[in-house]
Specification:
This protein has helices spanning 7-11, 14-38, 45-52, 58-77, 81-100, 113-136, 146-150. It is an all-alpha fold.
Length: 160
């Protein structure tokens, strides 16, 4: 007979941590995607976001909006978590590189480490959360770790 884990062992585990990460990251990106797609709380909405991000090709802006909203939803329920997390890692890396990192430079053209950190800490936190889910997977409390099964990372899901 298999030994059952105690309640604290179940609470203090990667499965619990992954669930907490998935809930936080998913809610944040559903909100940001909703602003870009539907115009929630003063967001630009679908066409306004495409116009506002005119320096980026429209298909990439559409992919970003869908990655944030649909990806955030799928991350919460634990469906294709690694796939959507990879998309969010890329989105945050681009946001840092194109938008937030350049703001680290002071008005006189000198580099300010403190200003660079303050401009990037939120985006870097989101990138790190998504990277953790990409690398470790969604945990057991997820709808399905499809990528983990396909890649052979989840032996407990194999049919053999």
């Amino acid at each position: 007979m298999a030994k059952r884990k105690s309640a604290p062992a179940n609470v203090f585990s990667w499965d619990s941590a992954a669930l907490a990460l998935r809930l936080a990251l998913g809610l944040i990106f559903i909100w940001h995607g909703g602003q870009k797609i539907f115009g929630w709380e003063g967001g630009a909405g679908w066409s306004g976001t495409i116009t506002r991000m005119g320096h980026i090709p429209a298909p990439l802006v559409m992919a970003l909006m869908l990655t944030e909203f649909v990806g955030g939803t799928c991350i919460i329920i634990g469906l294709l978590t690694r796939f959507w997390s990879a998309g969010l890692v890329i989105a945050m890396a681009v946001a840092i590189g194109m938008v937030h990192f350049p703001r680290g430079w002071a008005d006189d053209g000198t580099f300010s480490f403190a200003r660079m950190v303050s401009e990037n800490e939120y985006q870097l936190s989101l990138l790190t959360m998504a990277l953790a889910l990409f690398l470790a997977g969604p945990g057991r409390w997820a709808l399905a770790d499809v990528e983990g099964w396909v890649l052979g990372l989840r032996k407990d899901m194999r049919a053999d």
